[in-house]
Specification:
Structural class: mainly alpha
Shape: globular
Number of domains: 1
Strand content: under 5%
Radius of gyration: 17 Å
Helix content: 55-70%
Order of helices and strands: HHHHHHHH
Distance between the termini: 47 Å
Number of helices: 8
Number of strands: 0
Largest sheet: none
């Protein structure tokens, strides 16, 4: 039984992924390379690593908002104009954090926060597409990295991997998308998006707890 009414069919929902994936190929390779690069910046203590990580996150959210939502998803869902605008705002917030923050190294530590972050990153990059393939909507009919749901999971993973204090209000949009995106996708039995809801709720809680536990940078 559907949990949310949508203005598009299940066929249109998955076909828009095909249209997007075929149109931007091979840019998905570059997006995955950026994801791996930000992990390197988290683990290795480079002077400007926090800024570079925020700039990468800013680019990814700009891509999702400006390219996927506004150029592709809006063809089947008018609400994509709202989503796209919010994603672009989130991109701006990450870029502002990169510009205004101190040029410091991401002080990665092996603790519960970073281990959860690694799990979210692995889920967004590897496990998410694997579950989709098993469920019968593999590439190109699947949300590849650089699209909202897997990239939101990855975003929370990266933020947890950094030992860096972040104001919670600056990541409310990813949290809200984790809820909206989950219930919308659940309507079409995209079971891999269960991880989206978990990442959103667990991520916001853990980041709040870490803010209180660590002095931050």
């Amino acid at each position: 039984m559907p949990v949310m009414k949508t203005p598009f069919t299940v066929e249109q929902f998955f076909d828009i992924f095909r249209i997007y994936n075929e149109a931007v190929w091979p840019f998905q390779i570059f997006l995955n390379a950026l994801a791996l690069l930000s992990i390197v910046f988290c683990i290795f203590r480079l002077k400007f690593s926090t800024r570079l990580i925020y700039f990468i996150l800013g680019f990814l959210w700009l891509w999702m908002g400006g390219v996927y939502h506004l150029m592709f998803f809006s063809k089947i869902n008018p609400a994509a104009f709202v989503f796209g605008s919010l994603f672009i705002v989130q991109s701006g917030l990450f870029i502002i954090l990169g510009v205004t923050g101190r040029a410091i190294a991401a002080d990665w530590r092996l603790d519960g926060f970073s281990l959860t972050g690694i799990l979210f990153i692995l889920y967004g990059l590897l496990i998410y597409p694997l579950i989709g393939s098993i469920a019968g909507h593999g590439y190109p009919f699947s949300p590849t990295f650089g699209l909202p749901c897997p990239t939101t999971i990855y975003t929370f993973g990266v933020l947890l991997l950094m030992n860096h204090r972040i104001r919670i209000w600056t990541i409310l949009i990813p949290f809200l998308w984790s809820i909206v995106g989950f219930f919308a996708a659940l309507n079409f039995r995209v079971f891999e998006d269960i991880g989206l809801l978990i990442a959103g709720i667990a991520g916001i809680i853990l980041l709040t707890v870490r803010n209180r536990k660590y002095i931050g940078n």
